[in-house]
Amino acid sequence: MERRPLYAILDVTGPEPLPAGHLLYGHPRELLTPHIAGSLGNELRRLGQSALAEIERYARGEPFQHEVRLNDLPRSA
Fold this sequence. Notes:
Blueprint: E1 8-10, E2 30-32, H1 43-59
Parallel strand pairs: 1-2
């Protein structure tokens, strides 16, 4: 049986944020998401739908609608 390639979607990294030039930035089989695991309330559905939409865009080869850039990380919650 042929093994399918493995992929990772990471919400939390150590350290956080990852240092500039870290091998996970731009890795072909991973997707870094903003740290949203601690969210509560109604925003969970919206955040989940937004994350899913971004994954679908990625799978279709389209650019992200809400790309998180390295220089944005110091201001991100």
